Structure formats: C-alpha cells, structure tokens
Protein 1
Amino acid sequence: MTATLPAAPAAVTPEPTAAPAERRRRRGWMWTIVTIVVLAVYLFPVYWMISASLQPTANSADTAWFPAAPGLGGYETALDDAGLGGLRVSILVSLGSVLVTLLVAIPAAYALSRLRSRAVSIALILLLLAQMIPSVVLATSFYAMFNSWGLLNTFLGLILANSTAGVPFAVIVMRAFMLRLDTEIIEAATVDGLGPIGTLWRIVVPLSRNAIVTAGVFAFLFSWGDLLFGLTLVNRNEMYPMSVLILALANSNLNTWAATMAASLIASVPALVVILAAQRHVKAGLSAGAGR
C-alpha cells in the first residue's frame, strides 16, 4: 500500500502595500506647504509695500491690510519728490560701477587664476579683508580724498566709491570660474601667437561669460542699494541717488508714507529687471564657481 504524502501548503503571496507611496505623497505635500509658507513670509513685505502705496492718507501706524479706497496719490508724490531724477542718477552710477568693476576685476581674476605662488593666497586674503572694512570708514576716507580731488557731487566719485564693494567680490567669483577653464585651450591660443591680453579678451572672456554676468549683476545690486556713499559724497539735490531720496521721504514731516512705499516699489523695478534678465547666467556662474 502506497502512502500518500500530504500536499505542500501553497505559498502565500503578500498583498501589495501602498504605504511607501502614501508616505512619499504626504512628504511631498508637507514640503509643498512649507515652501508656500516660506515664500509667503518673504513676499509679505512686497505685498505690504503695494498695499501701503495705494493708501494716500495712511501712515506707518494705521496702514490697513487691504486698501479700502485705493489711490495713486502716493505715486504722484513719489514721482514729484524723488522721481525720474533719482532713478537717472542711480542707473548711471550703477552702470558705471559695473563697468569699472569688470574692467578691474577681469584682468585681476585671470592673473590670479594663472599664477601659482604664495602671493595669490595673500592677494585673496587682502580681497576678503577689503570686503570686511566697514562702509562708514570708507565713506569718511573717500570724503577727504574726493574733496581734495574735486570729485564730490560727481558721478565719477559715486562710481569709484561704489566699485569698492563690487571689485573684491567680482575677482573672487571670476577667479573660481577661470580656474576651471581648460588649460589646453589657453596654451593653444598662446601657441597660435596670442599674447596675454589677446588670450584674455578673445578666449577667456567669452568662455567666462556666465561668471562675468554674475559679477556684473552683483556689482549693479551693490551700487543700486547704496545709501551711505550717497549721503556722504553728495550734498546737491540733483545728484542724490534714489536710496537717499527714499530716506528723505521717510523722514519727512509730511504724510508721505504712501509716497515712501511707492518710491520703494519704483526703485525695485530696475533691480528686478536686471535679476530676471540675468538669472540663467547668474545661476550657472555661481554653481560653476562653487567647485573651487
């Protein structure tokens, strides 16, 4: 008689679970909410400026969250008191600072990226120390120096003063980018007969476009947001930059809170346009320079 073995139990297949996908979905929603909250916190001052600028009769103490009867009186006052004159001065000074910064920083950054000596480390330390000098110390020194040179109340004086903030930053950023350039390309240009200046302007500058744009944008923003040099080196109304005129509106005894906010918004437009126009180059320049 043949014994019959019992049948082996069927393998139990575990039921698929959606727990990991559900956790990922919840985590995604959590980060989305956190991002929205952070963005709202950062954008709230912008909303507050817009709301306050549309309330001509309000002051800093009784500004409503929502303008009940919005008006453009604040913008009219801002254009009359600060207006296009302050914008013209700020734009010319900022563009001039960008030009001076790049003309000085591009050759300096290229030289520091090619040299291999201890002097490079000393130069970089000096650049960092230059950025740490308080602006009030520089403004006091510039006032005495520019007064003897006849550069007070001039565009050139403001441009030179504001360039002191952009040059060290631009040198550091562009040197970090130029260190990543292929040395074979530069050596090939030298073999083809290009000298140091020709190699710089015909080879290095085009390849370093993103870093140069990044340095130029930050030099523009440094100059655009300057207040101390405008207060110290200028005492004529027609030469005041926009930042000084906004401060004058804020300190006025008149009811100019809406005008102050309107002038602040007007002054933000050129900087916003520059950032939006160059954001792709700035992102590429900063990410490329982060490797060294």
Protein 2
Amino acid sequence: MKKRQGLLFWIALIVIVLINVIPYFWTILTSLKQQNEIYNVKIFPEKLYLDNYIQVITESGFLGNIFNSLVVSGSTALICILIGVPAAYAFARLKFKFQNLLFMLVLFITIFPGIFIISPLFSFLKEIGAIDTYFALILPYVAYFTPLVVWILTGFFRTIPDALEEVAIMDGCGVFKVITKIILPLSLPGILTVGIIAFTLSWNEFLFALIFTSSDSARTVPVAISQFQGVHSLNWGQMTAAAITATIPIVLISIALQKYIISGLTAGAVKG
C-alpha cells in the first residue's frame, strides 16, 4: 500500500512539474526559431536563430521598457514596504476599535477587480496631467498591492514573541528603537518577501499599463511584449525572445533572495 502511494505521489509530482515546465521550455524553443519554423510540427529548430534576441535588444527599444518596469516596480515595492510595515505592525500588536473590520477591508481590497475603477482613475490622472508617466502606474499599483503586503506582514509580525519587545521596553527602549533595533531585523525575511511579491506583481501587471501609457517613455514590459507584430501576423519569435529577456531580472532576484522568500512565506503562513 505504501509503495503504491509513493508511486502515485511521484507520478503526480512529475505531472505537475511537466505542466509547469513545458510552457517555459516551449517559449524558449520558439524564441530560437525563425518565423517560418514556428508553425512547423518540429519541436526543435533546425539551427539556433539568435536574431530574435538581437533585434529585441538592439532595435526595438525593449531595454528602455525594461528600465521603465524596473523604475515602476522598484518604486512600488519600496512604497508598499514603507506603508505596509507600520500598518502591519499596528494590526499585529495594537488593539483598537473596528480592528477586525479594517483588516477584512484590507483583504477585500486585494480581490477587488481593477477594471471597476479604471475609468474614474483614468479621468483623474488625465486631469492632473499624469497619463503616460511613471506616477500613473505607481499610484494604482501601490493602492492595490499594499493591502497584500499588510496582510502577509501582519502574519509575520505575529510570529515574533511579544516578550522581546517587553524586555526591550523594560530596559528603557522607546517604541521607535524597539521597531528599528528588534522588529525590523527579525522581520527582514518577511519584508524582503513582500517586496519581491509587490515587485513581481507590478512587473507583470498589464491592464493599467495598457490604459495609462501610450508611448515608450513610460510603457512597461507586458505592454511592450504585446506590441511585437509582424506585417500580417504576430511576431512570435521576437515576442517570446522579449518574454525570456524580461523574465531574467525576476529570476535573478528570486534566486538571490530565495532563502528569505521561503522563510518569509513560511513564517507568515503560520499565524497569518
């Protein structure tokens, strides 16, 4: 019985891995094919075609779009952390009226559809002359992703024993010193985790970026990738090459901070 369960486990694991890996594998292969090879039944290209990457990097202005995404996503992650850390600490440590109701509202915002507010938000941004700027993307991203940051960090802060703060206060530390010297160092994995989550969500967001930007001066990666069109069809080779190129920064950041992400998500799930 145990052998059968073990076999079923490994079969299920292999199937799940293949389902997740095959799309990436197929995207990489497509990016290395010429346009006339993409619709063939052959899986592998006859020879590696690197012109798709060369054209994306040197001719399309895609590196500028990556820079835009770095600015928007990095600013969003930083602002979300600056707002989310004190808010999450308040939910985790303080007792105040309507605390549970406010926390439920925070969770509700995370599932609220962006399409619902896109029209009034566009009118507001147009009125203040912010369309096609970084601000037009950073503002809604911060509004949408900060509640998620607060929710995760609240669970993380609750895993830190109250006794540490009580001892520090008894030793004469003020609230600010307790937060900067004890809470923040202990919660660094959680803070880095939510920073990466906010960064990734901002990097991949498409709807607001499509509506609120109209030129390459502020256009981010997802919208830029959708612009790769040939004369009569989509240029799948360059589109997939751009997608792979845009994925590299996220992969490198995730690998570099992998241990913090795992520990942060694990701790936040314990009491969140």
